[in-house]
Amino acid sequence: MIGLCAFIMFLSGMFVFCSMRKHLLLTLLSLEFLALSLYFYLFIYLCCYGMSYYFILVFLTFIVCEGALGLGILVCLIRSQGSDNISSLSILGW
């Protein structure tokens, strides 16, 4: 039952990630929601099989680094373009 909840969280996060491609902030939020659902699923898996929780700490470290990198890119994009619209970017340069 709990595994089904984590799977539904993952599917809804993938749906939002695939459908919201206009704004970078919405894309980053959906990526963080996907990471949260994967963390939840991993925690359930490790609890069921009685394994160590050290991998969860490593996973959380990578997720925090991914979030900080995404926010840095978002700030850089807003400073250079004035908004977080992906459609306003040009292929030729920023």
From TrEMBL:
InterPro entries: NUOK/Mnh_C1-like. Keywords: Membrane, Mitochondrion, NAD, Translocase, Transmembrane, Transmembrane helix. The chain crosses the membrane at residues 24-46, 52-78. Its main location: membrane. It holds the Pfam family Oxidored_q2. It comes from the Eukaryota. It catalyses: a ubiquinone + NADH + 5 H(+)(in) = a ubiquinol + NAD(+) + 4 H(+)(out). One of its GO terms (cellular component) is membrane. GO terms for molecular function: NADH dehydrogenase (ubiquinone) activity. The keyword DNA damage does not apply. It is found in: Membrane. It is a multi-pass membrane protein. Coiled coil: none annotated. Belongs to the complex I subunit 4L family. This is NADH-ubiquinone oxidoreductase chain 4L. It comes from Sclomina erinacea. The lineage of its organism: Eukaryota, Metazoa, Ecdysozoa, Arthropoda, Hexapoda. The gene is nad4l.
